Amino acid sequence: MDYEAFCHEILRSDPGVRFAGIVDANGEIRYGGERPGITKLFTVEETKRSVLQAIDRWKLRNDLADRIGKGRYSMAEYEKLKRITVPIDETHLLLVSTEPSADHGKIIESILRLKLLLR
Fold first, then answer.
1. 70-88 pLDDT, tens per residue?
2. Counting Cβ atoms within 10 Å, is residue 88 exposed (0-12), middle (13-18) or buried (19+)?
3. DSSP letters of 43-109?
4. DSSP helix/strand/coil, 111
5. pTM for the whole thing?
6. How many beta carbons lie within 10 A of that of residue 39, not counting itself?
7. Rounded distance between C-alpha atoms, residue 77 and residue 81, angstroms
8. Which of 41, 61, 92, 93 is deepest in the core (most CB within 10 A)?
9. Taking all residues of the chain, what is their mean pLDDT, rounded to a whole number?
């Protein structure tokens, strides 16, 4: 499965998924995108800043990986959305945003199952 198809499958996995994209180490969204018809919460500049912050947080988590193991995913809940981040490889990070009411546990399970197909 390629990265574009991977993101498409995540969007199809649950109607609560708003965005599924894979970003590179420079913060560029390389694959995936938004569900059609959603109301955007960020401007293009805010999206870029948010992506760079997510990358920085994973770098900090990796500083402890030798003691606790590599992170499998991270999930944060906000009033207007939930954000799930999953490292794909050394240079790519999957970002998924969902509606606040979405079942993030189910979505994370689906992401991790689909990630196995990427190998």
1. 999 999 999 999 999 999 9
2. middle
3. -HHHHHHHHHHHHHHHHHHHTTHHHH-----EEEE-SS-EEEEEE-SSSEEEEEEE-TTS-HHHHHH
4. helix
5. 0.93
6. 6
7. 6
8. 93
9. 93
